[in-house]
Amino acid sequence: MAARSRWRKENSMKIVVLGGAGDMASRAVRELAAEPEVTSLTVADYNLEGASHLAAELGSRVRAVQVDANDHEALVATLRGHDAAASGIGPFYRYEARVARAAIEAGVPYVSLCDDYDAAQAVLALDAEARAAGVTVLTGLGWTPGLSNVLARKAAEQFDLVDEINVAWGSSASDSDGYAVILHTLHIFSGLVPSFQKGRLLSVPAGSGKEQILFPPPAGTITCYHLGHPEPVTLPRFLPGCRVRTVTLKGGLAEQPLNELAIWLARLRLTDTPAKKDVLG
How large is the angle between the packed helices 72-79 and 92-106, nearest 10 degrees? Predict the structure, then answer.
């Protein structure tokens, strides 16, 4: 019994999930609450009512706190004292870098679902600051980016030379909901977005490069476009020795009218600033 108690103490973790009441992060909360090593789990969200309902559902190890990602000092205070922090606070183009900075200041290892390319670039720019503080920061550990990066790395390790990596995703508008999801969709269809081609990071128009891509059932064929995701920024940087010359990212919604609507809103310059996205969202 003494050995088991000592093992539990040494392997116990206090984790905070920021935006934990949201559509995506709440799933992470449920997974973490089922892990015996997680002895304390904080659901931190601006929506205190939603966070409280989730915490009450999951038991005594889970508590809810309110946090405003616009309040740096409050964010740092919420993070302090935890062994790790996970974030689903979006839209990431607005909040990812500021939340990562708060984690670095609090001295808490940080991981997020960030899927905006410019937010990923902003976090990569914090590398020296994070190293100096001894804090590990992982941005973009969802399904795309995240699993897409892991699969690309795994495949690349099977070859002596990798020249080209093409990432594609397709989803339905009904797969997830929330205000931040709408803003993210408007953002990735707007302006110029990164694409790594012939050894250089280029800017290409979002919504260009139209291509029909066949996905496994039940998705089927979805029309995909160059969109603003982080893979063309991160994969060339983190595939040492592969000398990859091209990394593209294309994505699209199964509901083609929504793809076309997002493209036309961007062409009309109705989504080219955060304020304009807020109005449409």
Answer: 60
Classify residue 176 as exposed, middle or buried by CB count within 10 Å of its CB (0-12, 13-18, 19+). Answer: middle
Q: Burial level of 231, CB count in 10 A (0-12/13-18/19+)?
A: buried
Distance CA 18, CA 35 (A): 18
Give the integer Cα–Cα distance in Å for 11 and 93: 34
d(Cα 34, Cα 148) in Å, to the nearest integer?
25
The lowest-confidence range among 4-8, 199-203, 272-276 is 4-8
Q: Are residues 263 and 152 in the same domain?
A: yes
**Does residue 215 share a domain with residue 156?**
yes
Q: What DSSP assignment string belongs to 254-272?
A: SSHHHHHHHHHHHHTTSSS
Residue with tokens 């495949």: 155
Residues facing residue 201 across a β-bridge: 196
Residue 5 has pLDDT above 50, yes or no: no
The predicted-structure confidence for 202-253, as pLDDT tens digits, reads as follows 999 999 999 999 999 999 999 999 999 999 999 999 886 678 999 999 999 9
Paired strand residues for 45: 66
Parent domain of 44: 2-138
Question: Which two structure tokens, joined as six digits, stand for 273?
Answer: 């600033």
Residue where a domain terminates, one of 138, 168, 200: 138
Under a CB-based contact definition with an 8 Å cutoff, are residues 190 and 221 in contact? Answer: no
In tens, the pLDDT along 148-196 reads 999 999 999 898 889 999 999 999 988 887 888 999 999 999 999 999 9
pTM to 2 decimals?
0.91
Inter-residue contact 54 to 44 (CB < 8 Å): no
CA 9 to chain centre: 31
